[in-house]
UniProtKB/TrEMBL annotation:
Lineage: Eukaryota, Fungi, Dikarya, Basidiomycota, Agaricomycotina
Gene3D superfamilies reported in the protein's UniProt record: Aspartate Aminotransferase, domain 1 (3.90.1150.10), Type I PLP-dependent aspartate aminotransferase-like (Major domain) (3.40.640.10)
Protein name: Acetylornithine aminotransferase
Xref: CDD domains: OAT_like
Naturally occurring in which organism (per UniProt): Mycena chlorophos
Family: Belongs to the class-III pyridoxal-phosphate-dependent aminotransferase family.
Amino acid sequence: MFLSRSGRICSKRLMSSTTLRKNMSTATDTSSLLQYGANVTKGVARITPGIMTKGRGSYVEYDDGRTMLDFTCGIGVTNLGHCHPKVSKAAADQCMNIVHAQCSIAFHEPYLRLIEKLLPVMPDPSLDSFFFWNSGTEAIEASLRLARLVTGKQNIICMQGGYHGRTFGSMAVTRSKTIYSLGVAPLMPGVFTTPFPFWHQMGLPVSTPEDELVKQCLYQLDLVLSQQTAPSDTAAILIEPVIGEGGYVPAPPAFLRGLREVCDKHNMLLIIDEVQSGFGRTGRFFAIEESGVRPDVLVIAKGLANGFPLSGVISRRELTDKLPPGSFGGTYAGNAVACAAANAVVDAMHDEHVIENVNARSAELFSSLNALKSAHPDHVVDVRGRGLMVAVEFAGGESLASRVAKKCIEKGMIILTTSVFDVVRFIPPLNISEEDLKKGAEIFKQAVEEVVREG
């Protein structure tokens, strides 16, 4: 409560002069930093201006006073919202014990505790060997190394439209956009590409039945193995169960089962990349669970530690026992603070019934987006995804997706496009409230309607 200039009592709380001066000073200091934006490498792109200063739950704040609803989660990282109190506290507490306990020198408790918590949620009980690293791209690199070492074979088959990272090994198996490897060839050799069962990749209409897509893609895989890389030379097949940068396309369970059969037949490993789709994003702990398929290697990152850099490569001890000691490692691999945060993430997923919330909010989001598609059939050609990993594809050739995303930002919601197609993707927090989900869906609807009217 405070008194206005007229003497009336007002409901807002009066900030102390000290707090006011501190906030003004912070804003001034932050704004002055913008001049150094010119010194940031041009290769880093950005979709919003200004400096992000604070995040709480489903919202972020900027230095100029804007508060934005965040439907990006840092590209699928802050799955429990920004600064989840249990996660942040776990990390802060760990900072006062030990920050860096290098993995080649000794175990630390959060690392082993995280294995204890993850074992029960693995998509298959055979996955019992863990290596924690820093980022998704590093974990992909490690999975490729693992496949080559334990099979004694070199070649890797990846998916058209797949994205796995921007370091040299992961970049070689990324097939979503040429920008990620433009001008830096030669890339890692021994990589072969096969079609993913997505109507775009096959040059077929959106109405093509799923079983036909699966049939065609498994046939093409057989051709790859008979024409390009012999099974005796092929170490692994790498796939995202829901393709991310390629357009948010779920892999049909029948296709994943077909890949499992091929790998079993030819002594190849099936590497499942759940960097973005894992940890509840699709309405299950892991997207691969929908198919019942057993991964030989599971790659995780992003939502694992809710913003702290941590990734993991999980396989079977019968495979990883073949690795020479010292062949895996890294200075910051499995950092103690990041592992402590990840332990809190797993606890929160259970304690706060996050998966149940994902499925409830997913039904609401799909209902809203499908209604929008029905209202604008000439502009919205597809609504797809799983859980809260959802995409809307617009009619190509008009750049509607980027225009809609820009309008959403103008209306107070951050949202992203993806792929070489005209696609907007939804990656809201997994614990988002019904109210905030509805607010975001309404902003998106208004943005689409305005873009359509503008032509």
